[in-house]
């Protein structure tokens, strides 16, 4: 079982409009809703790849009930979300059908009380007992300590469970110091963490700060990775256009599935890039086109070198 943690769950709503123009009214041509937040996106992709997944985090209010109802129909995903008094947030993605560009609006999330945070930590420790790996993903809702991910990383390490961390800002900086097995920032998040805009230098610096392996997303240009086993760059055969929401989460799912399947790093990276590109091609945020993924998988170019033993 793979455990994914989404402390700031959401109901993702995707609107499609013929053309997005400021200061005007728009007729929405298509509306889609599905459970969201980075860890739930990761879980859905992992389940589609055939892995058993348990999702945990916070959920509350009418929006939270909708999230849990939608999760019920997701094969391979078990719901271990904890109820809170606040209301789960919504995220709104507006897709411009003319250009393919997406405008994203993210609500802040519910205020988590100290008692709710304590209850989560206890539940999390219990869930780790049956986990092969854990993903800690996304923003922190109000009320959760900024060092929360560092605490959860240390708990996973104490339980002997490999952990992937995908967050940003101060939560990432503190989490890296707890020595996660993998971090997966995008280029901007990596630059904010290290102060370097040169990807190779920045990934190496992030490793020195505590991360065992660093896999940085370069958007349409693929991924770059620095690990104890070597350094690699993975690129798709061509740039793809569409809705990028959730593409990074699909990459995290590719890395986690490769980890538990004990794939070599080049294969993990190829899977992550193919899933990411196939997610951009999907009409719904955070889901991937299966046929596109299968066609892309063997066309990803991975270059680099393994570290000599």
TrEMBL record:
Pfam families: PfkB
Organism superkingdom: Bacteria
Region span, Disordered: 227-249
Keyword Kinase annotated: yes
InterPro entries xref list: Carboh/pur_kinase_PfkB_CS, PfkB_dom, Ribokinase-like, Tagatose/fructose_Pkinase
Residues in Carbohydrate kinase PfkB domain copies: 11-286
Protein keywords: ATP-binding, Kinase, Nucleotide-binding, Transferase
Keyword Ribonucleoprotein: no
PROSITE patterns per the UniProt record, alphabetical: PFKB_KINASES_1 (PS00583), PFKB_KINASES_2 (PS00584)
Matching NCBIfam families: 1-PFK
Family in the record: Belongs to the carbohydrate kinase PfkB family.
Protein name: 1-phosphofructokinase family hexose kinase
């Amino acid at each position: 079982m793979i455990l994914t943690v989404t402390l700031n769950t959401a109901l993702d709503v995707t609107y499609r409009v013929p053309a997005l123009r400021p200061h005007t009214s728009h007729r929405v041509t298509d509306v889609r809703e599905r459970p969201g937040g980075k860890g739930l996106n990761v879980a859905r992709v992992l389940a589609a790849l055939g892995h058993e997944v348990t999702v945990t985090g916070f959920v509350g209010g009418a929006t939270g009930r909708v999230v849990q109802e939608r999760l019920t129909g997701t094969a391979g995903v078990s719901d271990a979300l904890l109820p809170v008094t606040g209301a789960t947030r919504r995220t709104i993605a507006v897709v411009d059908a003319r250009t393919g560009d997406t405008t994203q609006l993210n609500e802040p999330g519910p205020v988590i009380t100290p008692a709710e945070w304590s209850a989560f930590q206890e539940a999390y420790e219990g869930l780790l007992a049956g986990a092969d790996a854990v993903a800690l993903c996304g923003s922190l809702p109000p009320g959760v300590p900024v060092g929360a991910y560092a605490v959860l990383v240390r708990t996973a390490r104490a339980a002997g469970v490999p952990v992937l961390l995908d967050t940003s800002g101060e939560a990432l900086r503190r989490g890296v110091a707890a020595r996660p097995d993998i971090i997966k920032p995008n280029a901007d998040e990596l630059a904010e963490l290290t102060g370097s805009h040169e990807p190779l230098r920045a990934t190496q610096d992030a490793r020195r700060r505590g991360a065992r392996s660093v896999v940085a997303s370069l958007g349409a240009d693929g991924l770059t990775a620095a690990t104890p086993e070597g350094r690699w760059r993975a690129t798709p055969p061509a740039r793809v256009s569409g809705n990028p929401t959730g593409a990074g989460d699909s990459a995290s799912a590719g890395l986690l599935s490769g980890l538990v399947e004990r794939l070599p790093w080049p294969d993990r990276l190829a899977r992550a890039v193919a899933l990411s590109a196939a997610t951009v091609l999907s009409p719904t945020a955070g889901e991937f086109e299966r046929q596109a993924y299968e066609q892309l998988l063997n066309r990803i170019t991975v270059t680099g070198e393994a570290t000599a033993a």
